[in-house]
Amino acid sequence: MTSSHKHSYRVEYSEDGETFWYLRVPEISRSTCAEGWDEAEFMARDLIALMTEQDPDAFDIEFHRQPPENE
Q1: Helices (DSSP H) in 1-71: which residue ranges?
Q2: Which of 8, 47, 57, 63 lies deepest, with the highest CB count within 10 Å?
Q3: Rounded to whole angstroms, what are the CA distances from 51 to 20, 27, 30, 39, 66?
Q4: Is residue 21 classed as helix, strand or coil in its secondary structure?
Q5: pLDDT averaged over the chain?
Protein backbone atom coordinates (compact mmCIF):
# COMPACT_ATOMS: atom_id res chain seq x y z
CA MET A 1 0.00 0.00 0.00
CA THR A 2 1.40 3.39 -1.00
CA SER A 3 1.03 6.48 1.15
CA SER A 4 -0.31 9.58 -0.57
CA HIS A 5 1.04 11.84 2.17
CA LYS A 6 3.10 14.69 0.74
CA HIS A 7 6.32 15.85 2.31
CA SER A 8 5.91 19.20 4.04
CA TYR A 9 8.54 21.95 4.03
CA ARG A 10 8.71 24.61 6.73
CA VAL A 11 8.94 28.13 5.30
CA GLU A 12 9.98 30.77 7.81
CA TYR A 13 9.04 34.31 6.84
CA SER A 14 9.50 37.83 8.05
CA GLU A 15 8.33 41.14 6.66
CA ASP A 16 10.34 44.28 6.14
CA GLY A 17 7.34 46.39 7.17
CA GLU A 18 6.66 47.68 3.68
CA THR A 19 6.79 45.51 0.58
CA PHE A 20 9.14 42.56 0.86
CA TRP A 21 8.67 39.23 2.57
CA TYR A 22 11.83 37.27 3.29
CA LEU A 23 11.37 33.52 2.99
CA ARG A 24 13.75 30.90 4.38
CA VAL A 25 13.48 27.12 3.91
CA PRO A 26 15.75 25.60 6.59
CA GLU A 27 15.53 22.04 5.26
CA ILE A 28 17.23 23.01 2.00
CA SER A 29 19.30 25.88 3.45
CA ARG A 30 18.00 28.38 0.91
CA SER A 31 16.18 31.72 0.98
CA THR A 32 14.25 33.96 -1.38
CA CYS A 33 11.97 36.97 -1.15
CA ALA A 34 8.52 37.90 -2.36
CA GLU A 35 6.71 41.15 -3.00
CA GLY A 36 3.88 40.63 -0.54
CA TRP A 37 1.87 37.68 0.70
CA ASP A 38 0.24 37.10 -2.70
CA GLU A 39 3.61 36.11 -4.17
CA ALA A 40 5.01 34.26 -1.13
CA GLU A 41 3.59 30.79 -1.81
CA PHE A 42 4.61 30.88 -5.48
CA MET A 43 8.17 31.95 -4.64
CA ALA A 44 8.55 29.36 -1.87
CA ARG A 45 7.24 26.55 -4.08
CA ASP A 46 9.44 27.66 -6.98
CA LEU A 47 12.55 27.69 -4.79
CA ILE A 48 11.87 24.26 -3.25
CA ALA A 49 10.96 22.71 -6.61
CA LEU A 50 14.12 24.06 -8.23
CA MET A 51 16.45 22.95 -5.45
CA THR A 52 14.90 19.50 -4.95
CA GLU A 53 14.03 18.76 -8.59
CA GLN A 54 10.36 18.17 -7.77
CA ASP A 55 7.13 19.39 -9.27
CA PRO A 56 5.87 22.47 -7.35
CA ASP A 57 2.68 20.58 -6.47
CA ALA A 58 4.51 17.49 -5.17
CA PHE A 59 4.89 18.81 -1.62
CA ASP A 60 3.15 20.88 1.02
CA ILE A 61 4.47 24.02 2.65
CA GLU A 62 3.85 25.42 6.12
CA PHE A 63 4.46 29.10 6.77
CA HIS A 64 5.83 30.19 10.14
CA ARG A 65 6.25 33.87 10.98
CA GLN A 66 9.61 34.86 12.39
CA PRO A 67 9.62 38.04 14.48
CA PRO A 68 11.93 40.83 13.37
CA GLU A 69 15.23 41.00 15.23
CA ASN A 70 14.11 44.11 17.13
CA GLU A 71 11.01 42.42 18.65
Answers
A1: 37-52
A2: 47
A3: 22, 11, 9, 18, 23
A4: strand
A5: 90
